[in-house]
Design goal:
single chain, mainly alpha, 271 residues
Length: 271
Amino acid sequence: MELDNVLFAFALTLFAGLSTGIGSALAFFTKRTNTEFLSISLGFSAGVMIYVSFVEILTKAKDILIVSHGERLGYWYTVLAFFGGILIIAIIDRLIPSYENPHEIHSIEEIDEAEKNISKQRNLMRMGLFSALAIAIHNFPEGMATFAAGLADPSIAIPIAVAIAIHNIPEGIAVSIPVYYATGNRKKAFILSFLSGLAEPIGALIGYFLLRQFFSDTLFGVLFASVAGIMVFISLDELLPTAEKYGKHHSAIYGLIAGMAVMAISLLLFV
């Protein structure tokens, strides 16, 4: 495998992961949460992920596996890998306690409330650290997903990375606020939030070094189908519900349709 491809895939994963820092910065340098913009953006991200997962990634996985194993068995492997990806991310989601879940909704305005009660919150450092750890665990498979897409097909890896980056911005807000509640320290909250995003490139590196000796068409097909499952689950379980909670139902749906349309047009440009 060419070094340039590996570096490109890693750079995309790093960009997607460290966008948690953007959310953290927004939490500390803006006064109000732009809920309408976040709602549309999250819907847009879900649209990109859902469309590219079903139209492009799952199709590529099926084609690769059918060539390697025949039509019937290849199709079975594709379906099993797709739902296997969903199962992996669902298990991770279930293992994170709800009060520490990075996808619980938080808003920038909560910082003002935290500042009023900071003397009462210093004993919550453990919760703050667990919040950062929770988002790191959750981002690990996302990093492997972005990296695998970057290795296999740059034309779809770029929009995937952008979609996951958008998805990580409110995660940065979500992890910054409980850490700030715990410490009263904006700098520490920002750093922990930023570092939690490193789980994505770390996940990519670990996945690469563990799997590189086994790279084959079959492995790529299974990885691609699993990536599709992971992204569909993230979209349906996290992005769309969060988009609706941040804004109005129609804002989320308009963002979803716009994301699908942009993804469709970008794919047509490579036909």
